[in-house]
Amino acid sequence: MPPPAPAPSFQHGQAPRVGILFTNLGTPDAATPAALRRYLAEFLSDSRVVEIPRLVWWPILHGIILRTRPAKSARKYASVWLPEGSPLLVWTQRQARELQAELAADGLPVIVVPAMRYGNPGIPAALQALHDRGVDRILVLPAYPQYSGATTASTIDKVAEWTRRTRRLPALRFVTQYHDDAGYIQALAASVCAHWQQAGRAPMLVMSFHGMPERTLHLGDPYHCQCHKTARLLAEALGLSTEQYRVTFQSRFGKAKWLEPATEPTLVALAQQGVAQVDVVCPGFSADCLETLEEISQEAREAFLHAGGQVFHYIPCLNDSPAHVAALAALARRHLAGWELDPPSPATLAATKARALAAGARA
């Protein structure tokens, strides 16, 4: 390993600067086979994501998957690509800007930088950008409400990789989960209620979370349990009985047994049982991406309607909604406590309360 890089110049008496590294999973640079090949190679090479010995996995990844899957995945990404770029990156950048503005309005001078675990902008580059600006206290906030080794822990791995080649390390804190955070649950409930006010309420709400191999549950990963707790709390906030919602898992890959029930087969079964209308929400995704816009809003919709369903509504992710940004800001404030941030003035507190009330009224 090369020696640590030189540190930024240090000035005695310099006030501490605080930053937030706001991360999400990742995205290719373009909706092309070449870009997908680079992205999938990085993503599927992570031993946190694919827990198969490399001696077995490497020939499959490089001999089969990276030769066949990029073109197919590129077509899927092209169907949801925005003029500004990848939906996940666009929303993550907007969330970071809004989060910084929300904290600044509270009198908290925090620098918020977005980053992706896989692809660009990468975590090491984002950390270095904060470091170069003299930030010496960093809160790492992964946008994963539910903890998983394949997402949250992998993010921490990448941060640790950067620290191994950095001479002067900042103080680091991590948000590892917020699946039962009151602000997050309230933002989800407000999003569903807003949809119901506009489009009417379906007799069935399907809460679809990203899938994981079932073995991760037996190995002690709390992800499955935290998804169910999020779903239960959201159902309680909405006043739903157990018969009025389903918890499912999407995005299965490979032949291993994954967490069940699976989203698309559940939707097909509901349609065949005579459920004519469903609403689908993805509480584990903080921002719309390929898995929500293509897999749910396109593929799952088609499967439900083809099986006899009549009306399918996808409820968008929280994205940069005021309630979501307020929840993230409250979460960040709790984890930033004690880092010598200037406390907000009474006038700022009053303005913050007014914004929160206005956001709740809009929701």
From TrEMBL:
Domain of life, per lineage: Bacteria
Signal peptide: none
Coiled coil: none
UniProt enzyme class: lyase
Enzyme nomenclature, EC number: 4.98.1.1
Pathway assigned to this chain's UniProt record: Porphyrin-containing compound metabolism; protoheme biosynthesis; protoheme from protoporphyrin-IX: step 1/1
Swiss-Prot/TrEMBL keywords: Cytoplasm, Heme biosynthesis, Iron, Lyase, Metal-binding, Porphyrin biosynthesis
Catalytic activity field: Fe-coproporphyrin III + 2 H(+) = coproporphyrin III + Fe(2+); heme b + 2 H(+) = protoporphyrin IX + Fe(2+)
InterPro entries the record matches: Ferrochelatase, Ferrochelatase_AS, Ferrochelatase_C, Ferrochelatase_N
Subcellular locations according to the entry: Cytoplasm
Binding, Fe(2+): 210, 291
Main subcellular localisation: cytoplasm
Family indicated by similarity: Belongs to the ferrochelatase family.
Task performed by this protein: Catalyzes the ferrous insertion into protoporphyrin IX.
Protein name: Ferrochelatase
